[in-house]
Amino acid sequence: MIVRELLPVDRDAWLRLRERLWPDMDERELRDEQDEISCEPQKNSVLVAEESGRLVGFAEVSLRDWADGCDSRPVGYLEAWYVEPDCRRLGIGRALIDVAEAWTLARGCTEIGSDALLDNLVSHQAHRALGFEEVHRTVAFKKRLAPRKDA
User: Fold this and answer.
1) How far apart are CA 96 and CA 7, in angstroms?
2) What is the pLDDT of residues 38-55, one digit of tens each?
């Protein structure tokens, strides 16, 4: 297994993995995000794990101005992290994070942040196993706004 940066030829395989990580998202939205990530290589990196010519995992890492619980600026951020179910518990996730941390360190960062949904206990365990510490829990809210008729 090797971990390397994404190549243009990997784009469809990366999309397939992203669809597995976010099955409720529309393909067009996932492709638009891929375009956004790819257009700023100084700020974003996509790392892929390849096994026998097949992409079996990926990590998307970025530079952010800040991240919850982090004290330094800028800070690396693990935006996405996925390993195919049949390839888990083989060190692939750890290898992806090791390379993501090296990418972040090479850009002068001293911390890396991440997040996971409250009910994603597998992700919580994986983060802790790799040395991440939980800094807080939140519930996100939104409200759609429409112009008032009386305004």
Assistant:
1) 16
2) 999 999 999 999 999 999
